[in-house]
Write a structure and sequence with these properties.
- The protein has 159 residues and is α+β, with helices and mostly antiparallel strands.
- It has one domain: 2-Layer Sandwich (Alpha-D-Glucose-1,6-Bisphosphate, Chain A, domain 4).
- 27% of the residues lie in helices and 43% in strands.
């Protein structure tokens, strides 16, 4: 499987992985900043249009925790995700655990590769089984991520 959602390429590198990749006209240091700074995350990591991010906690260090929470503007349909950073290599690589509701935990690796001032960000989520991977895909996660990454491009252009 290989699809493109809102300019973001979505592939399945293995039976247990989902990879999403997008290039931005910005240096890796700026993409990293937008990906790790709560004030900036709240501007783009929103999934489909109309959502808000009232919870955005980032303790950016190995062993540090993160927690994100989203809701509709009226507070309805709220949900959260959380995890722990296991690798933090500024401007190039971030690895963390990810827990979402009753789903099995995942490990997410984000790489930031800059060439000539343009950065390709690739997020690879490794799940416990093919069934877990397929269940995550069935949620429409790639559509929400694609729209979020499209918004990230807009935030980066404004910075």
């Amino acid at each position: 499987m290989s699809t493109t959602k809102f300019g973001t390429s979505v592939t399945l590198p293995s039976d247990t992985e989902i990879a999403m990749s997008r290039s931005f006209d910005a240096p890796a240091s700026l993409v990293w900043k937008a990906f790790t700074t709560p004030e900036l995350l709240r501007r783009w990591l929103l999934g489909p249009d109309g959502w808000e991010m009232p919870i955005c906690e980032v303790d950016l260090r190995v062993g540090g925790k993160w927690r994100y929470g989203w809701a509709q503007p009226d507070g309805s349909s709220a949900f959260e995700m959380y995890g722990e950073y296991t690798e933090v290599t500024p401007h190039s690589r971030l690895v963390n655990t990810e827990h979402f509701e009753d789903n099995p935990p995942a490990v997410t690796t984000v790489s930031f590769v800059e060439v000539d001032g343009r950065t390709t960000m690739t997020t690879t989520m490794r799940l416990v089984s093919q069934e877990a991977r397929d269940a995550v895909l069935a949620t429409g996660m790639s559509d929400g991520a694609g729209r979020s990454y499209e918004r990230l491009g807009e935030v980066l252009a404004a910075l």
